[in-house]
Amino acid sequence: MTTAFRFRKMNGLGNDFLVLDARAGVPRLRPDEIAALASRATGIGFDQMITIEASPAGADAFMRIDNADGGEVDACGNATRCIGRLLIGETGREAVTIETRAGLLRAYETGEGERVTVDMGVPRLAWDEIPLAEPFADTRAIELQIGPIDAPILHSPAVVNMGNPHAIFWVDDVEAYDLARIGPMLEHHPIFPERANISLAHVTSADSLTLKVWERGVGLTRACGTGACAAAVAAARTRRTGRRVAVTLPGGVLAIDWRASDDHVLMTGDVETEFAGTIDRATLTWTRDGAVRGAAE
């Protein structure tokens, strides 16, 4: 009995994914198997594993999202664009609906190469929707800081839920802080009962900002789609920018439009299919099509 199954490797602005299709009989992997395959030293290397499944709600597909540490999460904006691109190609339609644990999302063909737009829905802004461990009347700036009380390193983040919880700290230079060191502390802060994605954001104009993200269960990431959406919403709520912004991340630029007509957040950006291959579940070894095992170049 064979234990091998097919996979794709995709990315959205460098935020990279192992994509499996359960509709084709690919098995559900255990958290330890996911973590082993996610290793950039010994595995395929990726931020999240995405499994395409049949949709109980009747959408074009259900998208299951597991972080690199094997923990399942509700939303991933860049992955939604990648799966949207696959389903648009599969169905031949200009728009598809994707079910996630965060709800139903729609992905749209833009007619601009591999660029895809995803309607990420309405941001959740109340303290118990994010969620936080205690009430805050105003989530545009909550009482949270790191460092001495009289001279904090970071303080007063905005918090937004875009399918998962985000905390955004406003800074003058996103590279002036060791996010790899402070990100884990803030991710696991008691104020966040479900942990949180931690972002440093620098507003560069009325319609642009720069963002760096520590993603819960992943670490530093080249791009975070929900993080870009959350930062754009937080910037508009605090009148730092308008409702349409270009968000520059280490992996590239996302166009975010927090639509005034219905409060839905639209995210547009590029996607890429890097390669495909085969995984042997019995040994967790893998082969890239046309290359030797483990070759990623």
From TrEMBL:
Pathway: Amino-acid biosynthesis; L-lysine biosynthesis via DAP pathway; DL-2,6-diaminopimelate from LL-2,6-diaminopimelate: step 1/1. It is an enzyme of class 5 (isomerase). Its EC number is 5.1.1.7. GO terms for cellular component: cytosol. Homodimer. Catalyzes the stereoinversion of LL-2,6-diaminopimelate (L,L-DAP) to meso-diaminopimelate (meso-DAP), a precursor of L-lysine and an essential component of the bacterial peptidoglycan. This is Diaminopimelate epimerase. It comes from Siculibacillus lacustris.
